Structures are given as C-alpha cells and as structure tokens.
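Narrative progress, year one. The postdoctoral researcher (J.K.) led the effort to move from monomer predictions toward full complexes, under supervision of the PI. The following entry was the first complex the group processed end to end, covering 596 residues in total.
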Amino acid sequence: MDMTDTGDFRGRIRQSFTRQGAMEMLGAELAQVEQAMVEIEMPFDPKLTQQHGFLHAGVISAALETTCTYAAYTTIAPEESVLTIEFKVNLMSPGRGERFLFRGEITKPGSTIIVADGRGYAIGDGPAKLIASMTSTMMIIRGRQDVVG
Amino acid sequence: MDMTDTGDFRGRIRQSFTRQGAMEMLGAELAQVEQAMVEIEMPFDPKLTQQHGFLHAGVISAALETTCTYAAYTTIAPEESVLTIEFKVNLMSPGRGERFLFRGEITKPGSTIIVADGRGYAIGDGPAKLIASMTSTMMIIRGRQDVVG
Amino acid sequence: MDMTDTGDFRGRIRQSFTRQGAMEMLGAELAQVEQAMVEIEMPFDPKLTQQHGFLHAGVISAALETTCTYAAYTTIAPEESVLTIEFKVNLMSPGRGERFLFRGEITKPGSTIIVADGRGYAIGDGPAKLIASMTSTMMIIRGRQDVVG
Amino acid sequence: MDMTDTGDFRGRIRQSFTRQGAMEMLGAELAQVEQAMVEIEMPFDPKLTQQHGFLHAGVISAALETTCTYAAYTTIAPEESVLTIEFKVNLMSPGRGERFLFRGEITKPGSTIIVADGRGYAIGDGPAKLIASMTSTMMIIRGRQDVVG
C-alpha cells in the first residue's frame, strides 16, 4: 500500500484511544497497533449484554469501529484525522465468551476515503470463534477544529 | 401490515429491556412502544464519547439496534424472539447534543426475516438534528433455549 | 433541506441518463424527476433474471443506485457530479411482476457527502409490492475531468 | 469449515449459471468453482456503463452477488438453494479496464444463514486493481417450489 509519512502513529493512537470515554466504559484495551492493522481486546462483562445475555451488537460495533478507525490512523498524516461515514456489521454467532478480540485492517487506503474491514472473535475454551465482521468507510478530515487527534 | 397476535407486547418489551446490561450502562430509556415502532432516549454523557468528544458510533449503533429489535418484538408472538443478523449505520452528523432520540420502525414484517429502519436525532437548542440512520435485518427465533424473551 | 442553486436539473439528469449504457440495456426509463427524488421504471424481461426467474439482485441494485444518484444530482451545482462510495441493498420479496418502479430520495444532502434511500416495487395485479430497499452514500466530485455530467 | 455433502457442486452451479438471463446479458462467464469460492470474469463493454463511462455499480453488484451465491451453493446439499437477503457494496475505484474479475468466498457457512465476501478487480495493463468489495447475507431455502437449483 502507498502510504504517506505517518510519523509515530503508535503514540498518537494510544493517546487518542485514552480520550474515548466509550472504550473505558467498555473495558476495552488496545492490544496491537501495526501499519494498517489494529487490535482491541475486551473481557466479557454482564453490563455489556443484550437481553439474552450475549455481548450487545452495539458493543461489538463500538469495538470493531474503533479498530477500523485506528487502522486508518496508521495511514494518515499526524495533522489529519478521520470520521466514519458508515459501516455494516454482520453478527455471525452469539457474543458468548470469556473475552473478545477485535481486529481492523485497511482494505483500501486513500487520500479522501479509506475503507477498512474488521472481524471480532470470542475467546474461551477451544479455538477462537468468529462472531462478527464489519466493513467501515471513513473520510479523512483536515483543518477542522472540532475533529483533531 | 399483516401481523400475528402479538399479545401484550409493551409488557414483554419493557421486561426484556431491563435485562439489557448495555442499555442500563448507556443510560438509555424506552420512551415509546407502539405497533411496529419503538423509541429510546439517552442523555449525553462524556463516558459515551469517541476521541473527538462526540457520541461514539458504537453507542449510536447500540441504541438504534435496540429500537429495531423491539420494533420487531411488537410483530412477533410472545413465545418467539429475534436475533439481529446484520445492520448498516450511516453517520450523518457528529453526535453532539444534550440528549438523543432513536426511533426504529418495521419496514418489512415477516415470518422468518424482519427488516427495520432506524433514525437517530440529537436534541438541544433548536430543531432535532438527524445524526444517523440504520437498516437492520433480523431473524425470528423459535424454540431455542438460549434465546428467549 | 438547504440546497444550492441547482439550475435546470431535469435537463441535466435526462441527458446524463441517456449516456448510461446500462440503463438502456435494462430497458429502464426515467419516470419522474423532482427536487431530491427520482423514479425509474422498468418492464420485466427474462434477460434480467437470476437462476430462479426473478429479477436479478444486480439489476435491482443498478436501478436503485441510479435513482439515488440522480436524486443527488437535483441537489448539486451544474458543474458538480457525484460518485457512489457504497450502498446496501435489502431484498425483501422475490422480483416477480410485470414491471418495476424504483424511487430514490435524499435523506441527507451535504456539500461533501450525500446519503440517499431508495425503494423498489413490483407492479402487477393488485397493490405494488415492496421488493427491495437501498441506502447509498455518495461523494460530490468537483474538477475531475473523468467525472463530468 | 464444516460442510454437508454437497455432491457435484460444479455441475449444479454451471447449470444454474446458464439459467441466469442477467449473466448472459452481461457477457459474464464462470471462471472458477472451488469449495467455498467462485470466480466470474467479464470483458468491458460500453453497454455496461454508467454516465461517466465506468462499469455501472449495478453490474459490479450483479457479478459480485452471483459469485457469493454460487460460493454458497458449494456448501449446501443438492436439494437446497439460497436466496440473498441483503448485501453491501463498496466501490473503491472507478470500473475502468479491459476486463474484470470477481471472486466470492464463504466467510461463515451455516445451516440457515450463510455470509460471503466478494471482491472485484479491473484487469488491464499492469497489476489487477481492486475496484469493489461486497458482503452478502444469504438464507438457505428448502422445499420451495419456486426456488430450485
């Protein structure tokens, strides 16, 4: 992939992540940050559930969307940011497990629009289970005072 | 729309809603439950934000998805439930406001697959502002012990 | 909705529509062009089918996407154009009928990103039947020589 | 992946493909059929274009959706069929090229719902260029006389 000089993206991403009230609320942690790929982990917690006791689809979306956003951050310049225009989530298996791993990867970098794909896994006894996928479309933002970092 | 006898859906939905850990965590409340339409309200809270201080896209998704799910509940029999297969969210304006209103409505009822559309609005001074839309596809579940109510 | 001066959008849209090889191939016709809303009609034809003899999902997508695009054209300046970034289609009933009506409407106008929603109906004996819906996200294009009109 | 005995899926898929009026109209050909993966190729043709002369998004959708459908066919029993419930398409680069390759792969097999992902590429001078991606959700159909093969 053709990328701009993205400087120390790990530092920027970790700093931005700590500003997310929602990630703290979910108990989510940045697990891995690589060029064009970011992972988040989250333990199961009853406060994150829908009515059947599974991880809420909105929680899954929050985690996946955050991995896609920060995967995009690894491809943009330090003074740029991104806003998510839209995403689609497929829920493939109920969100049951001890903890969850979410990975977002850049499918199409760009100078205006970035597309990323994410996958979520339930981790417990036995092999990791694919529980959800996301495709997310983001727009690069430059020079907006309310969208920085 | 051709609907089955759905019994006292308001009671069932309110009971199911209180079982959602995630809705309590978000401070969300069921505001309105009508045949094929459900509304949820939520005050702004810094713990619900992404890195720029706007309402997190995952929080918006959680609220919209819940309105779509319960709009579906108004069209199914008491012994049935639904699972969300997938949804798409468009984020149209930053989630800024004092509180937020989310409305889900059934677009296509069915005996196997139900499609709903949702819209989210920021409420503050001035007119309500459309911040997001959702299309959600759900599957009716019968006879599964882990998916009840 | 806050719209720019869009000049004679009907003339521009009819002219652009005739340049679409795909619309001619499908036998599709522009049926209505109003501010922020465009309709296309198409007769059933066996050459437009998938393996069960229903209207092909791709044909439905082509028609819906075109209504959304031209609905966007009614909100942009004459020297601008749009490219579709992404869309989602829900197929709600098999595409059976004598002819089909597709309607695209602007949900969120904008100076960079436009969101439209479309619905497709099968027309035959009896009431029109909702067969599909679309949400489409478009980007306004300015000053690109290969994207004009 | 855990698959049922799918018999001679290549024969069934080739037969089903020839029943698609739309694939013939587009000049599309089945290029490869493997367990959980199907490819279609299509030469560029001016009759397949949108108003800027690029491959029409609906044509891209038709081809991608067909690869996803037949990838699903490789995982179902001979007496079963599938209907597409919904899909999302991201258009990443203009559809320009001498010919196009579309690949659909099963992401999540299932006994009720199947999820597939597809990618489309423009082929010309130089490396293949990613022009589009799809995520498609399908439902397995059993015992419906109008949905066979």
